[in-house]
């Protein structure tokens, strides 16, 4: 079993996977709270589910696509600690993601709860367990199939998926595990540890290392070392100030002697790029006042700098303009839904995209398993991070979305492969954006919230149209190649309405623009076509699924798909853009407009697609 967070691993690593068979029960009458946490799930109607697969998937062993709002899980667990570890270490119950509201009990004692279906959370259960016996772990999940203020992404709320919406996911859908950690320990990115790796001019890594569990007044020191190719590059250390929970360190990442051949270098720093995804290995150590090691963590960083306010419409990586060749990747699999069937499957999807010449993806309407970014860092794959949107606006939506988007950005902030943030797509969740100042203000606030968390990356506020406040001008256009070429040939064409939506919101009060000034394209801002294509192949006449097969436009056969792809890609690359996102990498359920089938078989030769992308890169 592979550790679920390879991007942040302790030494020694003490963990136990809880993936596998659990007792499972639907609770359609919502009656279980009165007794099930105390006495366990009743035998009547109880079945077995394979975690971490949602009950709607075949891999779960249940494969039930009907609506069930309340579900329960239960299994036996053992404390990982023994002897003196019981007092010196803490036992964490860790979840990759549970959709949507999760409550947890150990032997009937309430352990904690979490709301948000796409981000990780931990519960400390040290006081509820002991090494001498097994314990009963009980979990209740509530996931409303019809609550449109709940962030859900592409999970459909109607009985039968259609068009661009798919089978819902409820309950545990990423890994669950136990982990024994030091009582005084280093925090990860979700807890505030930040590795700012874009200062190529000075060659410094600026780190904010969070320390958890320190007793008031205790002396602790944080040390950090960097290695490149096994060779020590630099060391930095700082005592933790008495009045704060983090230490600030600057680590010199310059390599002044015996530089490795075949890497990109700036100011003696080995920089990260798709061509050379160079990572420095980092070792973080936490020591007490007597120099005793309390905690040690291994992670990585890639030194690279993004710039998007260059005045010439370029998007730059390490000072060089790049034309981004991205593909829409929605993260679904035939038998496992939103859950990858394995860690290898995430790596395979990246390599399939790269085999077709794509340099990255817009990870669409999903906060992907962190293993995906682990491999993106190592394979040199550019990723736009995005949140799963809701479809109705209100105070409940605002609270839910702000919390979950904040957690998503914090989780992924230290990955060099992430190069842009997209909180919202096509005004989803903002049905009255043009006429409602409150909706506009919230979308504007998401821009500033994201910038407060991370000002090193651009923010694409509302991908596709109706931008309120954005660093990037992004547009969606599913026209055929001739019309798309005419649109992309000029900035005026790009800034015209798309799908009957204005590209930028206009003032609500023309006579009082201070109240709501509207927005417009910033001269010189990067312009990127972030959705186009969506071509499916006409189904065979005797295909039983043909009636549900869906695409934006339809090719006659594989040869026609390849020809259409070339014309569409060149229409965008030959225009007033600095990047593109083709829809999409693979088929998903009834939406069969992928370049690969749902089970990842290429519809057209990857090497031929790569030739098109290489030509587009040269032209763009």
Can you walk me through this structure?
Keywords: Glycosidase, Hydrolase. One of its GO terms (biological process) is carbohydrate metabolic process. This is Glycoside hydrolase family 2 immunoglobulin-like beta-sandwich domain-containing protein. Residues 267-304 form the Glycoside hydrolase family 2 immunoglobulin-like beta-sandwich domain. With 620 residues, the chain is of the alpha+beta class. The protein has 3 domains: 9-181, Galactose-binding domain-like (Jelly Rolls, Sandwich); 187-301, Immunoglobulins (Immunoglobulin-like); 323-415 and 443-456 and 475-488 and 525-619, TIM Barrel, CATH 3.20.20. 18% of the residues lie in helices and 30% in strands. A 7-stranded parallel β-sheet has the order 30-29-28-27-37-34-33. It has a 6-stranded antiparallel β-sheet with strand order 4-3-5-11-8-9. Strands 1-23-22-17-18 form a 5-stranded antiparallel β-sheet, with no helix packed on it. A hairpin with a 2-residue loop joins strand 25 and strand 26. Helix 3 (343-355) packs across helix 4 and helix 5 runs parallel beside helix 6 (437-453). It is globular, with a radius of gyration of 25 Å. 46% of the residues are buried.
């Amino acid at each position: 079993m592979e550790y679920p967070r390879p991007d942040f691993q302790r030494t020694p690593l003490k963990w136990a996977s809880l993936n596998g068979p659990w007792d499972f029960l639907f609770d359609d009458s919502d009656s279980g709270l009165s007794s099930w946490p105390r006495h366990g799930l009743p035998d009547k109607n109880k079945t077995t589910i394979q975690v971490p697969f949602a009950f709607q998937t075949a891999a779960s062993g249940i494969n039930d696509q009907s609506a069930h709002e309340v579900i329960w899980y239960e299994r036996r667990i053992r404390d990982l600690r023994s002897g003196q570890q019981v007092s010196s270490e803490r036992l964490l119950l860790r979840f990759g993601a549970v959709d949507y509201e999760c409550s947890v009990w150990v032997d009937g004692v309430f352990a904690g709860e979490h709301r948000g279906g796409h981000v990780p959370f931990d519960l400390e259960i040290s006081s509820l367990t002991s090494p001498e016996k097994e314990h009963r772990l009980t979990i209740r999940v509530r996931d409303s199939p019809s609550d449109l203020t709940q962030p859900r992404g592409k999970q459909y709320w109607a009985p039968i998926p259609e068009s661009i919406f798919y089978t819902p996911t409820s309950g545990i859908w990423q890994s669950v595990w136990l982990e024994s950690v030091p009582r005084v320990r280093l925090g990860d990115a979700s807890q505030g540890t930040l590795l700012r790796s874009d200062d190529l001019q000075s060659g410094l890594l600026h780190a904010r290392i969070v320390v958890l569990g320190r007793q008031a007044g205790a002396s602790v020191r944080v040390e950090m070392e960097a290695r490149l190719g096994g060779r020590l590059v630099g060391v930095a250390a700082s005592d933790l100030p008495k009045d704060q929970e983090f230490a600030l360190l600057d680590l010199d990442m310059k390599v002044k002697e015996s530089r490795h051949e075949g890497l990109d270098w700036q100011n003696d720093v080995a920089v990260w790029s798709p061509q050379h995804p160079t990572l420095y290995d980092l070792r973080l150590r936490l020591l007490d006042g007597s120099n005793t090691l309390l905690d040690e963590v291994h992670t990585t960083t890639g030194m690279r700098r993004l710039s998007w306010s260059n005045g010439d419409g370029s998007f730059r990586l390490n000072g060089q303009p790049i034309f981004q060749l991205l593909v829409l990747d929605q993260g679904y699999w035939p038998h496992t839904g939103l859950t990858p069937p394995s860690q290898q499957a995430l790596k395979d999807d990246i390599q399939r995209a790269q085999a077709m010449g794509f340099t990255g993806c817009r990870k669409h309407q999903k906060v992907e398993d962190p293993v995906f970014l682990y491999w993106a860092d190592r394979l040199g794959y550019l990723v736009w991070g995005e949140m799963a949107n809701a479809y109705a606006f209100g105070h409940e939506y605002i609270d839910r979305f702000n919390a979950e988007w904040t957690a998503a950005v914090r989780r992924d902030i230290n990955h060099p492969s992430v190069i842009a943030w997209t909180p919202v797509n096509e005004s989803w969740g903002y049905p009255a954006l043009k006429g409602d100042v409150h909706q506009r203000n919230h979308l504007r606030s998401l821009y500033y919230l994201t910038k407060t968390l991370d000002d090193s990356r651009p923010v694409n506020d509302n991908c596709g149209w109706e931008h309120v406040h954005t660093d990037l001008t992004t547009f969606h256009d599913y026209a055929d190649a001739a019309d798309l070429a005419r649109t992309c040939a000029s900035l005026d064409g790009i800034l015209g309405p798309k799908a009957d939506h204005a590209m930028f919101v206009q003032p609500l009060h023309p006579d009082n623009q201070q109240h709501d000034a509207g927005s417009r394209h910033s001269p010189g801002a990067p312009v990127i076509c972030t959705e186009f294509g969506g071509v499916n192949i006409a189904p065979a006449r005797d295909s039983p699924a043909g009636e549900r097969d869906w695409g934006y436009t339809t090719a006659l056969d594989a040869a026609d798909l390849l020809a259409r792809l070339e014309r569409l890609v060149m229409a965008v690359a030959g225009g007033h853009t600095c990047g593109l996102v083709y829809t999409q990498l693979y088929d998903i359920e009834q939406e069969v407009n992928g370049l690969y089938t749902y089970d990842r078989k290429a519809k057209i030769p990857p090497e031929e697609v790569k030739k098109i992308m290489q030509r587009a890169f040269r032209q763009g």
